[in-house]
Design goal:
The protein is an alpha+beta fold and 373 residues long. It has three domains: 64 residues, no CATH class; 191 residues, Dna Topoisomerase Vi A Subunit, Chain: A, domain 2 (3-Layer(aba) Sandwich); 56 residues, no CATH class. It is 25% helix and 19% strand. It is built from ten helices and 16 strands. The protein has a five-stranded mixed sheet with strand order 13-12-14-15-16. A four-stranded antiparallel sheet has the order 3-4-5-6, with no helix packed on it. Strands 8-9-10-11 form a four-stranded antiparallel sheet. β14, α5 and β15 form a beta-alpha-beta unit. The radius of gyration is 31 Å and the shape is elongated.
Length: 373
Amino acid sequence: MQVEEYEINGFAIDTFNQHGLETGKTQGVCPLCSHTRKPKNQKLKCASYDWERGLGTCHNCNTTFQLHTYNRKGSNEKEYVRPEMTEFLPVVDKVTEWFESRGISQKTLDDLKVGQGPEYMPQTGKKENTIQFNYVIGSQLINVKYRDGRKNFKLYKGAEKIFYNIDSIVGYDSCIITEGEMDVLALHEAGVPNAISVPNGATLSHNNLDYLDNCIDYFDDKTKIILALDSDDPGLALRAELVRRLGAETCYLVDFEGCKDANEYLMTHGKEKLKQVINKARSYPLENVTTFRDIEGEVKDFVKNGFKPGYQVGLSNFDSIFSTYTSQFITVTGIPSSGKSDFVDQMVVGYNKNYGWKTGFASPENSPNYLHA
């Protein structure tokens, strides 16, 4: 089959076939898990390759992966400061233990290039040993977020704000937006690689989404954008703004079932449950649109129990076949002189007796007129 080696969905390919797979083949080994299997199983073709989309799917470890790396899509006319590309220092010792206590493995830290090192933190006024989340597009380091042991944060001064892990959503028709890097790590740990994070969390008063403007081209081909944000007031404010900017018709919501975020859900329920709750994301409710899920309970009750009895006039033979509800318009018809008006009189007497209702008449054909007007 013919394989595109230069561009996919408008993204210029940086490193073609980054895992060294058999080019053009639709099946083969998995670069993520095959080397960890028993020797007799390491050459089994457990993965499918979609070269047109640039994605692979493993049917053994149940994860997806990108076949290539990509250069940046779109451009930004504004010039920003760039962090220096220094020697990458992987996390070790106590930092690794801390991540493990949050359900994050060393492999995930390596996959997402999480590092550590000394950095001046303005909150403490001195250099601290920090966790460093590297914000990368293609092969370029765009920004770095530093976190010290006191949970102080800072971004690289003057650097461009982009989504964390933005490269991971290329080729996918869906993505997950989270509120922090730890949630991205948690989802990656659970086998959901196409997750990104806003760089500066959420605030209640003002959410500056310049990072969305800088990365807007990455969402052109997305048909499903899952908002896996915190359920507190700042998280809800960020969700509303993202929905407004990205469009309610493409946005989906996640229910973390009492947990604050994806990382807490991972720690509480495990990897498989976290992946399942992402897959069960529900569509964002559109204004003035009712879905079956909104009325599912009412429909089930009606199928099982039928119409509930309404207001009755006090005539047992009539009440067994007819009752009414408020806000209804009732028409009583029949041949002339068949007793229509008398029956309506009986109805209103019954409603008054049973429920205390008062009735206004407009019936000029009845006498005396002053009693029916």
